[in-house]
Amino acid sequence: MDNTTFKTISVFNHKGGVSKTTTTYNIGWKLATKGFKVLLVDGDPQCNLTGLILKDNFEDYYTTGSSKLFNIKDAVRPAF
Questions:
Q1: CA within 20 to 30 Å of 3's CA: 18, 57, 64, 75, which one?
Q2: Residue numbers of the domain that contains 78
Q3: Does the global pTM surpass 0.85?
Q4: DSSP collapsed to 3 states, the chain
């Protein structure tokens, strides 16, 4: 195992319309352009962050091919 240090950044607020999605997207994008490996997890049922990232491929990603199983529900299914 290497000496890689992992950091977690969490953006949370109960109130809507406070720029959580936009802030998360921009932080992730900027870190990725600087060479960091970034994992963005969209836990919001509206899936706006996912929509920003996938753009027009949003529906196809969840309904076709092997990527249709790449979601939080299927990731935690073995635990239940």
A1: 75
A2: 43-80
A3: no
A4: CCCCCCCCCCCCCCCCCCCHHHHHHHHHHHHHHCCCCCCCCCCCCCCHHHHHHHHHHHHHHHHCCHHHHCCHHHHHHHHC
- Count of domains in the chain? 1
Let me know if residue 11 belongs to a domain: no
Across the chain, which has 80 residues, the per-10-residue mean pLDDT values are: 78 90 95 94 87 83 74 76
Other CB atoms within 10 A of residue 25 CB: 18
The two three-digit tokens of residue 8, written as one number: 């977690």
> In this structure, which amino acid lies at residue 78?
P
Please report, for residues 2, 4, 20, 36, 44, the alpha-carbon distance to residue 49 in angstroms, rounded to integers and kept in the order given: 31, 27, 9, 19, 8
